[in-house]
Amino acid sequence: MDYAAVIVLQVAYGVANLALIGLGLAIIFGMMRVINLAHGEFLMLGGYTVVVATNNGVNLWLAMLVLAPVVVGLIGVIVERVLIRFLYGRMIDTLLATWGLSLFLIGLVTTIFGPTTTTTVSPPVGALHIGAFFSSGYELFLIVITLVLFALVYAVMKFTKLGLLARGTMQRADMAAALGVSTSTIYMITFGLGSAVAGLAGALLAPITGVVPTIGAAYIAKAFITVISGGAAILAGTASAAALLGFINQVVTFITGPTVGEVALLVAAIILLRLLPTGITGRFFRRSL
Amino acid sequence: MMSLNRRTLLKGASAASMALAAPALIGRAAAADPIKLVAILDQSGGLDLLGRPMLAATKLAVDEINAAGGLVDRQIEMISYDPQTTIQFYTQFATQAAAGDRADVVHAGITSASREAIRPLLNRYQSLYFYNTLYEGGVCDMNNFCTGSTPAQTVEKLVPYAMKKWGPKVYVVAADYNYGQITAQWVKKYVADNGGETVDIEFFPLDVSNFGPSIQKIQAAKPDFVMSALVGAAHISFYRQYAGAGLTTQIPLASTTFGLGGEHLLVSPEAAEGMLLCYAYFEEIDTPANKDFIEKLRASSSDEIPYVGETTARSYEGVYLWAEGVKKAGTADRAAVIEALRSPVSFDGPSGHLTIEPKTNHLVQNVYIGEIKNQKIEIIEEFDAQPPSDTLLVCDLDANPNQSTFYFENGLAAAGIE
């Protein structure tokens, strides 16, 4: 019984983990059609923000929840202004440009901080006792914060003027411009928001995965698989794909082992995209956000 | 035959050009040509954490030997290449070292994959090859000297020690590639040899960083301790998540991979507290030779070296062992140096007394068990002069000098070990 509870918690965490690393990409790739191969590096930068901030005596919660999204969001805005804004509508070109950006960021961070960081950030939430089992309290916290983050992005997109303008601009930029919307500004803000979410995710994961300049590589493939499997609707898509793939990954990992678990995730994604070429939200939840 | 003809031709051509240029060369011919040592160690890519200090240590040894007057009255010229953690570059640079630079000795390779990529190549070109990394054992090759520790030297000592301290039920977590797979088999063998039980073995692809399910499985299996052969940056997450679930104090850890690159400084103090490690070298070895080595290494390296591990010390000692061979042979000629090395030669280095074991071209070396206490390693046991008994099970270069085999490539069963 305890073991069952532990497994349920682990599966929920697997789902939350995929959703968390995918959400920033969903905004940038799903909404803006920019293939952001530097997404993993945005997560990495979020982690480094936490490391640098806590080294300088900043409270860990403040560093994770406020500083990291602000810093990475600003970096996102700069990247959008100097690189991405010349490439809208040219999806393959964004792939090359952001790949270059990803290599540049890895190189830059390695130059500044060295190939490893000697800084250690411990999870700020202690262990959780479930009967005879110990589980990580921080993982439970991550599940909760992922839910909060989804609710927040939903609220911004659905109920604010900015959300409306962003959705309008992404659907028909020319029409939005004709109606007097500064589409260039909207693009910039949206990219910045996507980056900020990625930075937040990276910061939240830093205490349990650690940070090295090359950590982005561990995230990028899973983020893309989740977002592409999810399809057009960014929130519903990312959530449903994360739920499906995360569930399969964790359950298979429990039954067999992590190697087969990873394979199962990929096989599930391939089958899914064979059956639903436009992702889950291409067929279901079509009208959702 | 073709290459022989071409070589004879080239020789003739170079002799002719030498004759023409003779007056210009006479002055220089008096000072002997340098002996060429080529180092191929990753300075970038995923393995630079290990490769950078290894190169710094190699360079330190070469500089020291040169400052002391060189070898057989010749200076050593060190050429280094950065294979960027890419196997393709390894083969490229090994070819360059052997055919282009005409290296007298090549010190190269970190992973077994890189070693196996260049070993046959250097063998074919007859370039003497030193591999200075701890590995899973089993290389049997006259031309290749493996100076790192093997599982018979580390796992064999660590497993019984940990079982005595904590109990006989062992859970193994290992990296899912050649090294992890084979090390896990050695762990299983030594656990069984000591009357214990391996409750489960789990393998993790190198980029996995979510260990939640496995941490729960470990708890369900209730082992007395966990033996880890996890490798690389992503796998450090295991120790963080293990500590995050509060398990470090419940089910202790032992490892023959953790701490090699100073990982105990990368995780929080509580994540590594009490962990048992086993290597042929620890920075904490308390001898004048080791203190001297560490001081000189840190002073000579432009990079900061947070922790000096076995691979770094062995890179330094590897150069010295080869130099002992050259001194004894009186020449840098490959066949004579191999014969001298296997006679055998010894060297007293920072890790203690090292002797080449001539049946396998591996080392008889000291092994140390250390315990992590508040991010420092305390050496708690020392085993003197341990032979590479795993490789000795399959390899006898005295009897079959023409072997060039990696016996454990497909696991222990393939080599006939149960």
UniProtKB/TrEMBL annotation, chain A:
Keyword vocabulary terms for this entry: Amino-acid transport, Cell membrane, Membrane, Transmembrane, Transmembrane helix, Transport
GO biological process terms on file: amino acid transport
CDD domains hit by this protein: TM_PBP1_LivH_like
Membrane topology label: Multi-pass membrane protein
Pfam families (UniProt xref): BPD_transp_2
Keyword Disulfide bond: no
Membrane-traversing stretches: 6-29, 60-79, 91-113, 133-156, 176-194, 200-221, 233-257, 263-285
A cellular component term, taken from the record's GO annotations: plasma membrane
InterPro entries named in the record: ABC_transp_permease, BCAA_transport_permease
Alphabetized GO MF terms: transmembrane transporter activity
UniProt subcellular location: Cell membrane
Domain of life: Bacteria
PANTHER family, sorted: ABC TRANSPORTER PERMEASE PROTEIN, BRANCHED-CHAIN AMINO ACID TRANSPORT SYSTEM PERMEASE PROTEIN LIVH
Similarity comment text for this entry: Belongs to the binding-protein-dependent transport system permease family. LivHM subfamily.
Name this protein carries in UniProt: Branched-chain amino acid ABC transporter permease
Record organism: Acuticoccus sediminis
